[in-house]
Amino acid sequence: MNCGRATEWLEAYIMGDLAPELADQLEQHLARCEACRQRYEQLRRLIALLKRYFAAEQRSA
Length: 61
Ligand SMILES: [Zn+2]
Hints:
Layout: H1 3-15, H2 20-32, H3 34-60
């Protein structure tokens, strides 16, 4: 796996949409690659924020 592929898969991985065998490969890459680990942390925080935002929107609708 290279960093480009890892970056493409990060979003699906965080959303729980990535196939288990691909998630395994991604986790192995994240364990070795500091740059992708940082991207993962940033994206994970962003998606958590968005989820909270949309959950709040639904409650007020
Ligand atoms: Zn990487």
